[in-house]
Amino acid sequence: MDEAKFKRVVLKLSGEALAGKGGYGIDPDIIDSIAQQIVEVKRAGVEIAVVVGGGNIWRGIAGSRKGMDRAAADYMGMLATVMNALALQDALEKHGEETRVLSAIEMREVAEPYIRRRAIRHLEKKRVVIFAAGTGNPFFSTDTTAALRAAEIEAEVILKATKVDGVYDSDPVLNPDAKKYQEINYLDVLKNGIGVMDSTATSLCMDNRIPIIVFNLQQAGNIKKVIMGENIGTYVKGDDA
Question: pTM higher than 0.85, yes or no?
Fold first, then answer.
């Protein structure tokens, strides 16, 4: 592999990305494919941390809309992310990679508690770090977790893996004439309500000058292409970048 453009990255995986066509649960083939891509870039010397969502098992906001207490529903969503993190850890270790799951909610039997310096040390030791349980607080999304953890570990970029090949001005599934952005800045995302990340996550990235690259995870090899600097997906940045 040629020289990687980034040396330390945060990869944001939605829970839905792990579910496959069924839309629910964990698809072993998909999680193995993701693990293979992570291994490929990690062995090129890239320090990689992963933030996983839990929407394939439980979505807190959906539970709250049906009358459940929002905080309780969000805590359930955090536990779902731990299940996904452990599944990804298992897949990575089957490929011979050292990993650590760091949970924002303490559960020592299955994961280490999240400590910033410990996370950085694991990365320096060339382990794949998987962040689970969101921020440990209700009312915050895993997108916000990705932005927060990226700032804390001084990652160079957030790679947001999705089911589409970038950011559009409208839903490309519903509108065949939707325009894809090659680049867009944070302020335009916030002003126009463009669905890159939620506003809290986008603001965190803007304040800490962390670019976001949105790309299609379903095409094999795309994680490597993004890290090598290929022009795929959409690059979200500040005006001074």
Answer: yes
